[in-house]
Amino acid sequence: MGLNGALFLLLVCAAARAAASVRDGPLLNGNFEHKPHTSQMNGSRVLGAHAIPYWTVTGFVEHIKSGAQEGDMVLTVPDGSHAIRLGTESTIQQQLSVTRGKYYSVTFSAARTCAQDEKLNVSIVPGDPPGELPIQTVYTSSGWDSYSWAFKATRGLVSFVIHHGDDMLDDPACGPIIDNVAIRTLNPPHATHDNMLKNGDFEEGPYITKGSPWGVLVPPLNEDHVSPLPGWMIMASSKVVKYIDAEHFRVPHGSRAVELVAGLEVALVQEVDTVPGSSCRLEFSVGDAADKCAASPMIVQVATAGGSKSVEYNSAGTGGFKRDKLDFTAQHNRTRVVFYSTGYHMTSDGTGTLCGPVIDHVSLVCVPPTHARR
Q1: Which residue has the higher pLDDT, 174 or 110?
Q2: Domain boundaries, the chain
Q3: Where is pLDDT greater, at 7 or 43?
Q4: Partner of 90 for a Cys bridge, out of 59, 300, 327, 334, CB 3.0 to 4.6 A?
């Protein structure tokens, strides 16, 4: 065996035994640029369970190169020159060393190839049941979207798993391409006297890959699951909101915000404890991300049990925002705050990229009724 072969075997053995100690950023070989040895490949198909350094694979998994031709389709990757493709009933996983009781968000890029109704199951083992990420809707013109998913660590050593099911049984190779897998430790903020909402400025959220031009999609989740956007729930059947940053977009306040890219089909929601009869003021910013999302007007519906309001914002698609407020009286011990876009929008550059109004800098302050103060 030559020197290169020996070094390769040492790398594979170390990857199979050791768990990656988590730090914010890409997972070990999260962009799949460290490729399998040629002896572990049949064309693009990965043959060995531990052939991809730092990962374990099962089923029909391919390690692809950007520009590879498949029929009439040219495969592309969002970063570097390599990615993996998950075929029917295939899995890729990496073992992680995490802190028990901490919250984490995982981000990865995905693109459909030959199936229209593709879905990915993401999970932590041991942990809660898998979460399903719908990737049927493509939100960007490139065909690539970045998705986020979150979990609470119940053990110090866990495995992060992405599984692709049986969408195309007649073609075992058919499935999505995965790249740029990264992780971030979440530190969920608390409500304060000045703001009863948690994470009202959206500064705490999933990892955004440096140089990524499309933000991170936050999918719908059951109310008892961990949100990649602490404090907030995404209420929808299969649509998402987009988490954006000031490095790549225009945001009204701070360095993070949320863009409502799916119209009436998704709502951004948070519930807070309130005293019935309290006088409440909800303040917020509505704007655009400077992503050529031009519309006059964009309309955001803001709603609580105590009242609702339609907020119009005339967008030129070049950035900007307006402050607005909703005054209402709390009706119950729990008050649900809801934001959603009443329209569907695309960028004005003709690429078909979905976009929408931006929500940021949200605060809620309630003053209890006089008899509650005594």
Answers
A1: 110
A2: 3-186, 223-373
A3: 43
A4: 59
| Tokens standing for residue 348 | 């004005």
| Predicted confidence (pLDDT) per residue in 230-255, tens digit | 999 999 988 999 999 999 999 999 99
Q: Kindly report the CATH number that applies to the domain delimited by 223-373.
A: 2.60.120.260
Structure tokens at 68: 């590879």
The pair of three-digit structure tokens given for residue 228, joined into one six-digit string: 């990649």
Task: Give the confidence band of 282 by pLDDT, cuts at 50, 70, 90.
Answer: very high
The C-alpha atoms of residue 346 and residue 368 are separated, in whole angstroms, by 43
Q: Rounded to two decimals, what is the model's pTM?
A: 0.90
Q: Tell me how far apart the alpha carbons of residues 292 and 250 are, in angstroms, rounded to a whole number.
A: 11
Domain with residues 3-186, CATH architecture: Sandwich (2.60)
